[in-house]
Specification:
Layout: E1 4-7, E2 12-15, E3 22-27, E4 32-34, E5 39-42, E6 45-50, E7 56-61, E8 66-71, E9 77-83, E10 91-97, E11 104-109, E12 115-117, E13 126-133, E14 139-145, E15 148-154
Antiparallel strand pairs: 1-2, 3-6, 4-5, 6-7, 7-8, 9-10, 10-11, 11-12, 13-14, 14-15
């Protein structure tokens, strides 16, 4: 899967990548497209990616090149990268689920590459997923176990 932008004024798709194997793309807060040059003017696109070794990771496309920022643990499913806003702008939150179950939210510090857990599943049936930053900089997500999900917020 590759990354495309849709130019509404011209009614056409613009291909950004070739062979990216991208899933769940998200734009950085400072993302801007220059329609005149047909290139990314500022910011980046972040996405989950199927890597060559059958694992998944988090990558960044800045309009020139792809950089893999995080490589998931062995055969984990990685998804929904969400770039931070405001004071959390140097961070990406994403979900990761190892093969033995229990999906967690993790945060990646973009500059340092440090990754840490925001949630830790109590058992293999517990999940935390679908992170989203609201306008005030709070992190919203859904979590639960046994098919019952609730909305949560981290301030």
């Amino acid at each position: 899967s590759d990354l495309y932008l849709y130019d509404r004024e011209r009614g056409r798709e613009i291909r950004l990548t070739s062979g990216a194997r991208a899933i769940d793309p998200a734009l950085s807060e400072d993302f801007a497209w220059d329609a005149r040059t047909g290139k990314i003017a500022s910011g980046s696109v972040y996405y989950a990616k199927n890597l060559e070794d059958a694992n998944m990771g988090i990558a960044k496309w800045d309009g020139v090149r792809e950089v893999v920022l995080y490589r998931g643990s062995r055969f984990s499913r990685v998804g929904a990268p969400t770039p931070g806003r405001g004071s959390c702008g140097g961070r990406i939150v994403f979900s990761e689920q190892p093969p033995n179950g229990g999906e967690r939210l993790r945060a990646l510090e973009i500059q340092s590459g440090v990754v840490f857990d925001l949630t830790v599943p109590a058992d293999p049936n517990e999940i935390a997923t679908t992170p989203y930053w609201d306008e005030e900089g709070n992190l919203l997500y859904v979590a639960g176990r046994g098919g019952v999900l609730n909305a949560y917020r981290i301030e």
